[in-house]
Amino acid sequence: MKLDGKVAIVTGSGQGIGEAIAVTLAKEGAKVVIADINEETAQGVAGRIASSGGEAIAIKTNVTNSSEVSQMVEQTLTHFGRVDILVNNAGTTIPSPTEQLSEEDWDKVVTLNLKGTFLCCREVGKHMIKQRSGRIVSIASLAAHKGLAYIAPYAASKAGICGFSRELAVEWGKYNINVNTISPSTTVTSLLQRYFEEQGIDPKAHLKYVPLERDNMPEDIANAVLFLVSNDSRNITGEDIVVDGGTNILYWPEKG
Ligand SMILES: NC(=O)c1ccc[n+]([C@@H]2O[C@H](COP(=O)([O-])OP(=O)(O)OC[C@H]3O[C@@H](n4cnc5c(N)ncnc54)[C@H](O)[C@@H]3O)[C@@H](O)[C@H]2O)c1
Questions:
Q1: Ligand 1: residues whose CB is within 6 Å?
Q2: Is the pTM of the predicted complex or chain greater than 0.85?
Q3: Could you tell me which CATH class the domain 7-242 is placed in?
Q4: Which helix (H) or strand (E) holds 99?
Q5: Residue 256 has what pLDDT?
Q6: Residue 11 host element (H or E)
């Protein structure tokens, strides 16, 4: 197994993409910390990993609160003795035309997506520096690279995650810590499926903008994370992998 003996913290892993990442890392032998603000869903994921033979614990954590983040890292060290992998996945968006966006909503999105990533990197980084090894992957978005209306704080914070991660990659390279990002396009989580159903949106309509004509699934993101936290990518740092079926490379939105 690729991650035998490794300890991984995955934030926001009580559902969606984070859950798929936690399950994938556990299948490869990692001991996983499900760090989510929702204790119930976090316990559920940890339980499902344990019942399929993996090892996981749930730690209720608000990643925007520095003392909760530092307690979560301490609890991880007490329980598992080390931290090898950090996946910053917790994130949110509050769509709005920018001229109507409140300062409060801007702060909510940027604080969770960008400050949450900084706080987790800072706390986990202290231990990775002592260990002289570590892997950090943060989930950005295609919105970090491409224009899309009504998600200004989301796009700004996700582009911020890419810049922040490149900076860390330079700063912490000498400690053998790789820092990379993944930029997914719209990913079909159960929440999104429900939303399509409720709104009567054809779930396949967007595939005309996808050269591979395939939905982006949480497992596609999880597999890219697995690559970036395994030894297969040991000489890759400060990079971003776009996982989107090719949407990003289209010159015109409608493919020929
Ligand atoms: N789903 C998509 O289409 C898509 C596309 C590109 C990027 N992303 C990014 O992937 C990540 C996961 O997306 P998702 O669709 O699975 O999201 P989701 O909303 O389904 O799950 C987010 C998880 O984060 C947790 N969370 C929220 N606030 C938190 C906090 N303060 N501290 C700790 N945990 C908190 C939630 O409880 C939840 O379990 C996000 O960063 C998102 O921006 C998603």
A1: 11-12, 14-18, 36-38, 41, 61-64, 89-92, 112, 139, 141, 184, 186-187, 189, 191-192
A2: yes
A3: alpha beta
A4: none
A5: 58
A6: strand 7-11
